[in-house]
Amino acid sequence: MMKFLLLVVLAAGAYGCGLPSFPPMVTRVVGGEDATPNSWPWQISLQYNKEGEWRHTCGGTLISDQWVLTAAHCISKGKQYRVAMGKHNLTQDEDTAVFMNPASIIVHEKWSPLFIRNDIALIKLDAPVNVKDTVMPACLPAAGFLLPHNSPCYVTGWGRLSTGGPIAENLQQALLPSVDHATCTRSDWWGGMVRKTMVCAGGDGVVAGCNGDSGGPLNCQNAEGAWEVHGIVSFGLGLSCNFPKKPTVFTSVSSYAGWINSVSLQADTGGSWSHVCGGALISANWVLTAAHCINVRNTYRVQLGKHSLKVEDEEGSLAVWTARIISHKQYSTMLSRNDIALIKLSSPVTFSDTVMAACLPEPGLVLPRGAPCHLSGWGRLSTSGPLADLLQQALLPVVNYETCSHPDWWSFLATDKMVCAGGDGIKSGCSGDSGGPLNCQSPDGSWAVHGVVSFGSGQGCNVLQKPTIFTRVSAYISWINKVMTTN
Ligand SMILES: *[C@@H]1O[C@H](CO)[C@@H](O)[C@H](O)[C@H]1NC(C)=O
């Protein structure tokens, strides 16, 4: 079993995250201020119906086209809620506003109002929202990520402007530098009230989140410039919004990455996810697959660490959203040229025994004829047969370009930017394997992905002189690096 590339791409939201069309003005002024309209497009207003009138009760964060993250303490049984997106001035009718009803609300099963632990809830919208300039999901940090002390994060919300004051009409933002766990748990700060699953920010006595901000996001920019939501406003000092040494306390999103993924993706399944293609994890947040696997109209999720496709909750497996999908601009459907795409995951994954990145080959490296490579995937077991339940592997020796492009073989359809492997009439890749990797061992024993399954013979999976054709990864290393550094 080659564990590093056990991954499935499953169909169903291709969208970006964390990069607003109207960038927030982050001027580092001290004190809250009006946000630039729609510059925090993942900010939602959670509203409840009070005698026929919708009232703002909490903030929240759109984290995909159908899921909203908020605080558990924002949710009361028996209340009717709606989610307002694309809002700036809460009292104004705005063209940008989108209102949607929850299909379900899932409060963390271990939510403790007494100790304010696990203050997190997910709201599933009754339909996917149209992602646009003014309504856009946030990125989430990697599981277990710890914010360094004093990171410049921003809390946003329509919360009270001052202790006991009214809620704001316009969305407010305030710079709230993060406070590390050691400082926040000092006895004269929050002491034992603050757990490892919480993040603190503020506490300088000047700026702080206030009650009405509950459930709203703590937004911090990552190294690539995208905004990630690291916290959900959980509590502060009831007496005052901005008391020294009493920073606002947030539920740490990175501590609940697993919970968020499992709850939301499980609820999303409902029979609607199906295996489309294989792919290979090549870094903590990038997956290599084939361009022909991607249909811009579909939403995708990526499953990693899988062995059996039938088992829902496999130990060691995880499902992740896609943040962005980039297909090669010169991909040609007709000739299957440049059949390569990269998927950016919405949050980086933590490597484990079951999830690991494959190596990439040296740029330009061409494997010799007969090199023993292995195809892996859940592709069809025989021509037009069913998909495999368990991950399959097959030895496919490399066929050199001269042979592969011979008129009796693939002729002009094979180019020198492809790898041919197999073609002995017995073992070969089949269509369900599309996008999946051709794994070849390097002299140092590490496995590298030399090919991405592109096409085979339409007549069958194992036609003599028709080896499986892969996009040759070593021909695209600079493209891969460019995409990964600029997205
Ligand atoms: C918000 O909209 C209302 C209604 O149009 C308007 O009266 C009010 O002045 C606006 N608030 C701000 C702060 O601009």
Ligand kinds? 2-acetamido-2-deoxy-beta-D-glucopyranose
Helix content: under 10%
Please compute the radius of gyration using only Cα atoms.
25 Å
Strand order of the largest sheet: 16-1-19-20-21-18-17
Strand percentage lies at 25-35%
Shape: elongated
Oligomer: single chain
Per DSSP E runs of 2 or more residues, the count of β-strands stands at 27
How many DSSP helices?
Answer: 4
Biggest sheet details: 7 strands, antiparallel
| Whole-number mean pLDDT | 85
Which spans have pLDDT < 50 for at least 5 consecutive residues?
1-15
Taking the alpha carbons of the first and last residues, their distance comes to 32 Å
- Secondary-structure content class: mainly beta
GO cellular component, one term: extracellular space
Signal peptide: 1-16
Protein name: Peptidase S1 domain-containing protein
Pfam family, one: Trypsin
Short description:
With 487 residues, the chain is mainly β.
Explained architecture:
The two termini are about 30 Å apart. The chain is mainly beta and about 475 residues long. It contains 4 helices and 27 strands. Helices cover about 5% and strands about 30% of the residues. It has helices at about 180-185, 255-270, 400-405, 475-485; strands at about 5-10, 35, 45-50, 55-60, 65-70, 80-85, 100, 100-105, 120-125, 150-155, 170-180, 200, 215-220, 225-235, 250, 275-280, 280, 285-290, 300-305, 320-325, 340-345, 370-375, 390-400, 420, 435-440, 445-455, 470. The strands form 4 sheets. Strands 16-1-19-20-21-18-17 form a 7-stranded antiparallel beta sheet, with helices on one face. Strands 7-6-3-4-5-9-8 form a 7-stranded antiparallel beta sheet, covered by helices on one side. It has a 6-stranded antiparallel beta barrel with strand order 10-11-12-15-14-13. The relative contact order is 0.14. The protein binds 2-acetamido-2-deoxy-beta-D-glucopyranose (NAG). 2-acetamido-2-deoxy-beta-D-glucopyranose binds near residues 92 and 169. The site of 2-acetamido-2-deoxy-beta-D-glucopyranose (NAG) has 5 residues, from loops. One of its GO terms (cellular component) is extracellular space.
